[in-house]
What we know:
The chain has helices at 4-8, 11-29, 55-66, 83-95, 103-106, and strands spanning 76-77, 80-81, 111-112, 123-128, 131-137, 142-147, 151-156, 165-170. It is α+β, with helices and mostly antiparallel strands. α3 (55-66) crosses α4 (83-95).
Amino acid sequence: MPDLALLHGSPIRLWARMGIFLGLLMLGFGCGTKTVIQSVPTAPPPRQDKASPSVSEMLLAQYQVWKGVPHRLGGSDRKGVDCSGLMQAVFRDAFQLNLPRTSIEQSRLGRGVDAGEMRPGDLLYFLDKGSDHVGVLVTGRQFLHASASAGVILSDFDSYWAPRLLRVRRILDAGT
């Protein structure tokens, strides 16, 4: 059998090397109980279905519900509706906002807005054929109203309607 002292130096040196190796081995793997630190599982972020619909989208949805309903003075249902009855129903159903029944009472709500600052959801008041008329701006160039001749329609804010505009009222908050 070969002499260990000749192969690896003195036996003391060999034991010292083995001691260092075992010490490092114990540090790396440990010989006591192990504590495993696991990351706490977190819930996935809440699922964002679709962003909240815009005011325009909500008004267009109301248009689909009311489209073609005939005009009826004093009416407030799908058998027939007038302009202020339509505004009352649309704002109730789309925005959970209870408006008064008549356009005069509705015109006292909110605040006045310059025509150049109109945005979807603003109430538009016109003088048409000698009487007051109200509609709601849906997009930058279209408004929803109950026309005496065509029933519930979307009309362009065009050369016919623009000169007849009397006032604009904002009744929806910026966050709505």
